[in-house]
């Protein structure tokens, strides 16, 4: 059984996102919702940044907001 290491914890009002790393497997994002249900999308990410972004997007959509993806196309 592989050992996962907790690498990041992020908080949002009523939500918690945690990123774990497992050697040779990559990063995973875990989200705890306001009802204390632990959720995971089942994906493995190459970088912690990708896992964090997945968690942020999931939380923002769950809260009913569009995620802030920045201004990438030059459009306002």
What is the mean pLDDT?
86
Percentage of residues in DSSP E strands: 35-45%
Distance between the termini: 48 Å
- Residues in helices, as a percent range: 10-25%
* Tally of contiguous helical segments: 1
Q: Which class best fits the helix and strand makeup? A: alpha+beta
State the shape. globular
Radius of gyration: 13 Å
Query: How many beta-strand runs?
Result: 4
Order of helices and strands: EEEEH
Largest beta-sheet details: 4 strands, antiparallel
Give an overview in words.
With 76 residues, the protein is an alpha+beta fold. It is 20% helix and 36% strand. It has one helix at residues 48-62; strands spanning 4-12, 15-22, 26-32, 38-40. The chain has a four-stranded antiparallel β-sheet with strand order 1-2-3-4, with helices on one face. The longest helix is centred in the C-terminal third of the chain and has 15 residues, at 48-62. The radius of gyration is 13 Å and the shape is globular.
């Amino acid at each position: 059984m592989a050992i996962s290491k907790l690498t990041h914890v992020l908080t949002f009002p009523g939500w918690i996102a945690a990123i774990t790393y497992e050697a040779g497997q990559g990063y995973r994002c875990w989200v705890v919702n306001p009802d204390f249900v632990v959720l995971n999308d089942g994906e493995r990410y190459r970088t912690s940044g990708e896992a964090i972004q997945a968690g942020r997007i999931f939380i923002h959509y769950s809260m009913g907001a569009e995620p802030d993806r920045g201004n990438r196309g030059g459009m306002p």
